[in-house]
Amino acid sequence: MAPETQSFSYDGKDFVNMTLSEMALNITPNHNSGVLTVTLKKFESESYNTSSINVEASSMNIFPNPSNESVNIDFTLSSNVGGTIEMFDVNGKSVFQHTINQNTHTGIITVNTANLNAGVYFVKLSSQNTTDTRRLVVTH
After folding, report:
1. For residue range 13-66, what is the model confidence (pLDDT) as tens digits?
2. Are 72 and 128 within one domain?
3. Residue range of the domain that includes 93
4. C-beta separation of 135 from 93 below 8 A
5. Which stretches within the chain are classed as H helix?
């Protein structure tokens, strides 16, 4: 059986098409800054080379959940490039969309849910290359 391979790219240089036995992966989250540091180590006999890649994550909190008349969406973006918040029903139909302007890193928006049917919805925060999706229950 051939060794399992996984393709990696880091600025088009190291860690491409290595066997899993040739590398180690270390993931270190920093909960204060929202930065996830991914370190790939390539072993060469008894020594190894190390490269680190910072992956910044966007996140959000939804409250109150379940919601009756309105819901607050508290968001943090990984960078100031803007993004979108979108709400979908269980059939995938978009029922709300909000554009987050560039240079906005954090914020809270309030969405009126009084005109939505009672049920389950999904709230999706998208920014650059990150996405965070949460479940929302609307009751009346």
Report:
1. 444 444 455 556 666 666 665 566 666 565 554 444 555 545 556 789 999 999
2. yes
3. 59-138
4. no
5. none
